[in-house]
Design a protein that fits this description.
The N and C termini lie far apart (51 Å). It contains 7 helices and no strands. Helix 2 packs across helix 3, helix 5 (87-101) crosses helix 6 and helix 5 (87-101) crosses helix 7 (126-138). The chain folds into 2 domains: 2-78, Hypothetical Protein Yqey, Chain: A, domain1, CATH 1.10.1510.10; 87-138, Arc Repressor Mutant, subunit A (Orthogonal Bundle). The radius of gyration is 19 Å and the shape is globular. With 140 residues, the chain is mainly α. The chain has helices at residues 2-7, 10-30, 37-61, 64-78, 87-101, 109-120, 126-138.
Amino acid sequence: MKTAMKAKDTTRLATIRLIRSAFANAQIEEKTDALTDEQAVNCLRKMAKMRHESILMFKDGGAEDRAAAEQAELDVIGRWLPQLADEELTRKWVVEAIAATGVNDMSKMGMVMGALMKNHKAELDGKLAQRIVKEELLSK
């Protein structure tokens, strides 16, 4: 925060303040004095998801300047987010989850997603995982 202040980087400073505020709100919701690393990452992921959705809406509405501002905030938030698994690793985990659950049709997709999220929730992108689960189940 001090570095952003000294550099007069208003976007980074404002985003860091938003993150601190979100952490404070999460502490109140969780009724705790300090967030665990997992809770902090979940809070950052929620913020990033909101920025992604806003960017899409602004671009659809023709507000490119607002979309750029949201992208700048997303870039700052992304600095503290752990890297998510790539498509290859996600596919490997999906195949393992399908084998573990014994599911072989789309009607039980939720069981596969549940097993996958139970073991790798913090490490993967849910939308990517869902797409790969569909592909794998449809190919069987």
